[in-house]
Amino acid sequence: MVAGVAAAAKDAGVTMCHNRVGSMFTGSSRKVQSPTGLSAEKCDTKAFGNFFRAMLENGIYLPPSQFEAAFLGAGHTEQDIQQTIAAAKQAFAMAAA
User: CA of 24: how far to CAs of 21, 62, 93, in Å?
Assistant: First the structure.
């Protein structure tokens, strides 16, 4: 799922830094090295808010902050993953417009 969402961002020309460990993942507008450091403060929280709302409108419930982690679990199906990637493509296309 992370690779699909990252590819959707790249295809739309949207800068996205993604991090994943196991089934835990997050994405932001730039690399965050410390939650209290300048790198976190420079992230585009407005863009994330727009992305979050677009995903929510498509039935995808993400953590409401780009500084929180999302989790992919055993209950998620291939259809859920494809729906998430499709919603991300739509959200990134709106952001790039």
Answer: 5, 12, 25
Reading the block at residue 6, the tokens are: 């990252």
**Letter for the amino acid at 29?**
S
In the block, residue with structure tokens 């863009």: 47
**Residue-wise pLDDT tens digits, 16-59:** 888 888 999 988 777 766 656 556 667 778 888 899 999 999 99
CA atoms of 72 and 15, how far apart (whole Å): 22
CB 40 within 8 A of CB 34: yes
CB 88 within 8 A of CB 4: yes
